[in-house]
Amino acid sequence: MDDEPLSAEESLNLIAQQNRRNRRELGGGPARMLAAWAFAWIVGWGFTYFATRTESIPGWVGGVLVAVLFVAAMVYTGYVSARAARGIRGPSKTVGAMYGYSWALVSTGLTVVDVRITQFGTLTSDQVSLLWSGTWLLLTGVMYLAGGMLWQDKLMYGLGAWMIVSSALSVLVGFPANFLVLTVCGGGGFLLASIVYFVREKKSR
User: Mapped to the 3 state alphabet, what secondary structure does 32-44 carry?
Assistant: First the structure.
């Protein structure tokens, strides 16, 4: 006697399990990508905060370091995502690609907005720092909220909520403590989420 066909819910669960298995086998789990971003935020913004507390380090050095680390994290994320996508087909691959393109689109748009506001010259250097740190934390939070809703991932949704709270905090504490918020709350949030995902991956094997 043939096996009974799977229900819609069982089919979706099977697809989700297969996608998670493919990501683990291809090294595309979120733990590694979040760890890369945790490193970039903690080292980059941590150094920037340290630079503001001493006169021996020019302020632009921190900006350059953050840019280099962020570019490296983006390249690594793109590599891992592309590698993982080779094992995924259908709607899951389309959703993942659209989510990745959304990051690029909103990042470009926010950069233009922040650069233009900065060019008006009406804000002090401290206020410009708060503008950039606050808006980028907010953007990060919103995107992770969206990702959590797309993949029904409560941890990702929680990370997004945490980043939004951190965004408000970074503006409230003022300059240069905003860099400390980026380091501890932003980078720490990525690190904690990375650890939780890593433990989940180990348990599911």
Answer: HHHHHHHHHHHHH
Q: For residue 45, give every residue at least 6 positions away whose Cβ sits within 8 Å of its Cβ, in sequence order, or none.
A: 66, 179, 182, 183, 186, 187
- The tens digit of pLDDT for each residue in 81-92 reads 777 666 556 566
Which DSSP string corresponds to 107-155? HHHHHHHHHHHHHT--S-HHHHHHHHHHHHHHHHHHHHHHHHHHTT-HH
* Spans of the chain, pLDDT less than 50: 1-2, 25-27
Identify the burial level of 47 via C-beta atoms within 10 angstroms of its C-beta, where 0-12 means exposed, 13-18 middle and 19 or more buried. middle
CA dihedral 34, 43, 169, 150 (to 10 degrees): -10
CA distance 161 to 135: 14
